[in-house]
Amino acid sequence: MTVSTDTPAPASVSTPATRLRSLGWIARRVGGGVFVLWAVATVIFFALRLIPGDPVDAILGGPGSQASAEAVAQIRADYGLDQPLIVQYFLAMGKLAVADFGTSYALKVAVAPYVLTQLWSTLVLTLASLVAAWLGALALTLATSGRGRVARALGSGLELLAAAVPHFWLASLLIILLSNTLHWLPPISVPGPLGLVLPVLTLALPLTGFLGQVMRESLANAYEQPFVLSARARGESEWGVRLRHVLRHAALPGISLSGWAFGSLLSGAVVVETIFARPGLGRTLLNAVTIRDIPVVTAVALLSALTFIIVTIATDVVDRIVDPRVTEVAAR
Amino acid sequence: MSAPRTLLLSLSVVASAALLAGCTAATEPAGDPVAGGTLVYATGDAEPGCLDPHVGGNYPQALISTQYLESLVSKNSDGEIIPWLATDWTESPDGLTWDFTLRDDVNFTDGTPFDAEAVKANIEHLKDPETASSTGYLAVGKIEGIDAVAADQVRFTLSAPDSALLESFSQPWVSIQSPTALEREQAVNCENPVGTGPFVVTDWVKQQSITLERNEDYNSAPDDAGRTGPALLDSIEWRFIPDAATRYAALQSGDVDVIDNAQPNNISSAADVATIEELDAPRPGAANRIELNSGKAPFDDIRVREAFIRSVDVNPGVESLFFGTAERSYSVLSSVEPAGISTPDVFTTDPEAAKTLLDEAGWNTIDSDGYRTKDGERLSLTFPISTNQSIPAEQSLFEQIQASAKDVGFEVTLQPTDLSSWYGALFTNEYNVVSAPYTKVGADVLRILYHSDSIIPAPSGYYANLAQLSDPALDAILTTASETSDASERQELYAEAQRIIVDGFYVLPLYDQQNHYLYSTSVEGFRALPPVAAPTFYDAWLTN
Q1: Which helix H or strand E contains B485, and what residues bound it?
Q2: pLDDT at B24 over 80
Q3: What are phi and psi of A99, to 5 degrees?
Q4: Which of B186, B254, B297, B329 lies closest to B523 in space, CA to CA?
Q5: How are beta strands B209-214 and B199-205 bridged, if at all?
Q6: Sequence-distant contacts of A117-123: CB under 8 A, at least 24 apart
Q7: B410 or A5, which is more confident?
Q8: Contact A190 B255 (CB under 8 A)
Q9: How confident is the model at residue B398 (pLDDT cuts 50, 70, 90)?
Q10: B residues 451-470 near A, CB within 8 Å?
């Protein structure tokens, strides 16, 4: 952060020229997004075929027994697995281009609607976790920054600890404490908000620590700024200074990081959904990779990439709204 | 990843068990059966892709389909075949024709009557390539013709005598479904198969649960059930909880009533918890065992195979890692198979004898890392491990085996992989040692696992004879056994076959295929159905 003054927003934000530049910026981002999706699809396609083994096993319900020659031949033909690899690739890409995700090898259902249902469950989990992490980080930093050394040390110590805790370990700890010992919450995900508490805590706590660390640093920076001095001179209360002036500065790096944070929540969902037996993209992906359910793996990977791209673009837009200087720099 | 979690949870479990032990009351005798209530079952097995066990045919399907589908025959706890949907059967003297008499008072839950035409439609469904059946297809492989002689009479014509036919028919993968329902699209039938069982599938939320509701018209309980008429439970909620520690925590907290795939540490600590009981129901067919690939070097030499078996001591590992929940097996067959013979004398540990055998076999030089070599080549063994099928305790056991084999000079390379890579290694013959589960009712499983025909890969690449045992004498015995109806003669043939397999040091038996259920004391009358030890809740009721 090289900011030295509390610059007011430039008046030029909504001129036609900047609006055009903004449109171009968004177009470039969208184009980049499409490229990323194609790359993801290609990597997934070839990676899954490099693993030894045969997708026909996934289709046959796999292991343990021998299928008839007719059944295997039938399946190869039905799923186009008898075609050369490169033909399969172009066929697959052609279908993906028109959003045709095919039928799951293992679940025998259409992939698109199935994965969309799972996406909803994961989105509820990750968005709730993101909100919880933000609230936690704000509460922690605002409560302990700008105070004495002990409070600061305590705050940053807690953040470091929280950021370092692995999800699976935290999940076990929460189950032991809140479920088995105190009997407050069910150890498995049940329908309704109650079942969401433990999974959200598991995902949100490490992120709280991470966001808190980043925000604490920029908070400390902001306290050094002249506008804080002037606000104090005007007789603003300590909490008034924090909430009205310092917070905006402190939040900026947090917002920028939220896109990344969302991605980390998506990957954390694999562990959390498995431990708490919660439906979702993470568990779907884990199952599908294990049994090589190629259509499902592809769909989940693409959907996760798409969600991540959208969130990253959205974060940048919010960033520009909170701090218009970003636009100026980026548009030049 | 799961090691620290398992440790942590076991510590907590020990602590809570200690607390509970202080206030343990004597178990009250169960009262009269009470109707009503919803039982919550939590499975750690994979979520089936299709609820119709004809499609594919694996154990997760067997676990649940026993609640809504029924078979022609069953087995009682003594291992005898008993009537179920079929009341009587006769085999022609040449073994090529079987006549079955069917119950005439049973309907499928969609109203279709159960009759000979229904049985015919089911066998045809299993044999249809579009069904993509594997286990069920194998079971009915010798059936060539099916005739509905009368509404309650069906006749099967076989291509060769099949002494395992009744055992095959008792498997859930060969259960009988409504022919009307089978005519629907496969995807529809997968979601909602229709049988004659005590419960009906009403809802399936993927990755969450399946809802089963009582069949009010149920009247076809097998002969060994304790009662008749509809089930006592209103419904069953069948939940999927993949994480073993969470599953056990949910049982402890009372959120679920029964769990399967209970891990050794949980079973051990549950023994001290007054509110939890255990049901140990070993799967039939083969025991859990290590197969030695005799199809290539170095295990194409019997001396090297014997040296390997002499070099490893399985017992201390089984005792410590399984907390006394698994008993060492010295038989190729599961302990529930009456034809199994136990030969502890064959599997004694003797490192000195192992070294002598390796010297004789030419592996008599030792390299700088302490491994034996022959003509400059190291005595190396590749051991792919499926982390989806081997629980952590078993993987640790393999590590101990690796360590004790090293003392004699074997280099064992463990390769933990996901299921598809594991199959890949097997299909491409890139293994020397492997442990693969196999469940089938009856001693005829020996033919599938050790007949030389089973070295020829199926079109999918899978072959069951992973020891690659090719012995014409054994083949002849196994074929004769599968065509012999006389029970005592069969018994002798299977004993002879097992003797050949163990004396050739092709296999190292470990313990029974684990099927441990833990359940709350509020569940009464819960049992495993003998054919493949899958749970049945027809007899069960909830006391609270």
Answers
A1: none
A2: no
A3: 60, 35
A4: B254
A5: antiparallel
A6: A117/A279, A117/B206, A118/A279, A118/A280, A118/A281, A118/A283, A118/A284, A118/A300, A118/B206, A118/B207, A119/A281, A119/A303, A119/A307, A121/A278, A121/A279, A121/A280, A121/A281, A122/A266, A122/A269, A122/A273, A122/A280, A122/A281, A122/A282, A123/A307
A7: B410
A8: yes
A9: very high
A10: 454, 458-464
Report yes or no: B246 at the A interface, CB cutoff 8 Å. yes
Whole-number pLDDT of residue A147: 67
Q: What mean pLDDT comes out for the span B14-31?
A: 44
**CB contact set of B71 (below 8 Å; sequence gap of 6+):** B84, B85, B169, B170, B171, B172, B174, B175, B176, B531
Tokens for B285?
């067919």
> Would you tell me the crossing angle of helices B487-503 and B472-483 to the nearest 10 degrees?
160
Asked if B438 and B304 touch (Cβ cutoff 8 Å), the reply is no
Structure tokens at B390: 């081997």
Interface test with A, best of B45, B186, B420 (most A CBs within 10 A): B420
- Quick one: pLDDT at residue B13? 43
The better pLDDT of the pair A141, B95 is held by B95
Contacts of A172 in chain B (CB under 8 A): 5, 8-9, 245
Rounded to an integer, the average pLDDT of B426-438 is 90
Which chain B residue has the Cα nearest residue A284?
A: B207
Interface of B with A in 274-313 (CB under 8 A): none
* pLDDT at residue A18 tops 80: no
Q: Which position has the token pair 């980080």?
A: A137
Q: What is the mean pLDDT of residues B58-84?
A: 94
**Which of the four pLDDT bands, split at 50, 70 and 90, describes residue A14?**
low
Largest CA distance in chain B: 76
Three-state SS annotation for B153-213: EEEEEECCCCCCHHHHHCCHHHCECCHHHHCCCHHHHHHCCCCCCCEEEEEEECCCEEEEE
Position with higher pLDDT, B134 vs A63:
B134
A152: CB partners within 8 A, 6+ apart: A144, A145, A216
Average pLDDT estimate for A15-19: 67
Contacts of residue B438, Cβ cutoff 8 Å, sequence gap at least 6: A64, B285, B286, B445, B448, B449, B464
- Decide: A30 and A306 in contact? Cβ < 8 Å: no
- Pairwise pLDDT comparison (B71 vs B417), residue with the higher score: B71
Give the residue on A whose Cα is nearest the Cα of B61.
A61
Q: What is the pTM of this model?
A: 0.86
Phi and psi of B258, rounded to 5°? -140, 140
Note the residue count of chain B: 544
CB-CB: which of A54, A114, A172 is closest to B206? Answer: A114
- Report the residue of A49, A51, A60 to disrupt the B interface, i.e. the one with the largest count of B CBs within 10 Å: A60
